[in-house]
Amino acid sequence: METAQIFTDKIGNGNIHELSGMAPNDDIKKFAKGLDEDNTMYVGHLPFMGKLVSYLTTGDENAGVVKFTNSGVVCVEKVGENSHIEWFLMPSCVSI
Fold first, then answer.
1. Which of 38, 43, 49, 63 could bridge 58 with an S-S bond, Cβ 3.0-4.6 Å?
2. Which residues contact 39 (CB under 8 A, 6 or more apart)?
3. What is the value of pTM for the model shown?
4. Do the Cβ atoms of 58 and 32 come closer than 8 Å?
5. Other Cβ atoms within 10 Å of 48 Cβ, number
6. What is the DSSP letter of 75?
């Protein structure tokens, strides 16, 4: 919820809805069936988010299509029956 709040404060409309089924080891396929495809940001934890992106883009939750880091963001676009990664941002750690 804290991460979702940061995003909605900066780029959202202030609305956050907590969903069940997004715990780190929850069933990806079950969750994917209920996704809202209308410009919705889902914020969650690993390994769930990595498996979800893999499942949406390849049909295999273990494909490992994105190597997430903490605070990574991936935009998945659905066109017809197919989904692909539109863009992604991964922060890098810098030591000073």
1. 63
2. none
3. 0.84
4. no
5. 20
6. E
